[in-house]
Model the fold of this input.
Amino acid sequence: MEYYKASKDGKQTCLLCSYYCDIKEGQVGICGVNKNVGGKVECLVYGYIAAFNIDPIEKKPLYHFLPTSKSLSLGTVGCNFHCNFCQNHGISQEKNIDKSNYITAQRVVEIAREKKCASISYTYNEPTIFYPYAKDIAVEAKKYGIKSVFVSNGFESKEVIDDMKGIIDAINVDLKSFNEKYYKTKLGGNLHQVLENLIHLQKNGIWLEITTLLVPTKNDSKEEITKIVKWVKENLGVNVPWHISAFHPDYKETTLPRTSFETLKLAYDIGKEYGLNYVYIGNIGYENNTCCPKCGKALISKEYYNVKSYELKNGRCDKCDTPIAGVFWRNVKE
Done:
């Protein structure tokens, strides 16, 4: 795909995210890292990785995509959102690009192969803003059967979501709130577009999981949690895993308390009450078992991000043979 198109008065429209920034010559978009250079929008962070780690796939969090596997995880500086509680604000809100170490897409894939990673995750900051780099890595990784994962705020452009089809295999999207005003004034983007994109991503066959960080006094009311759950059920179905994540004070939100277990449990109970099959409480070391929605057997037992036991058989419950939603590549017991 083309990542930009000509606009009026010599501007270029960036097509990476749903802001569709009209960028003047020499200026950057909202993300701070895509720049109009000579009538072309150049991704300034292409090849310049700011964070590089090997993580369990469960840390993304993805609980129904290649469980027990390792994922080579990378991010750059920059972001198109400005969340006050960002845990990676040191890179996401940074505009200075360290260009001392350029890493080609081919080299990233070589490292993933050397470290026996089943996937490469584009994470830590918003990967949509470095999609040209992520795509080149993902296409190269496909040659070796290595999957690609986005951890995203869900504000991709329609063009990028269509381009991701067959290239990006899984995505965890932060559905940060169900309040339009809160999105626009405190986070970025807009709720309506994120909801549309969730539907679009699922229709394009990309494995989808959702995370909601419950921030005390901001998005943790019973009413708002219920709206999220009902929307997910009615628009995406009961088999989309929903991760409820605990907030801790960070960045510009240092005066709010941590999310209470009572609030997390309330959200969990609402999710189950409305029939979501896979609801998880995260960030507090709470038991996060994947259970069969029919017979209730714990099939994947987890502690933090470590899988303690795995009893799926070819993606099905080994007790009652019910299929479990997800992408499962192997029977770990073999």
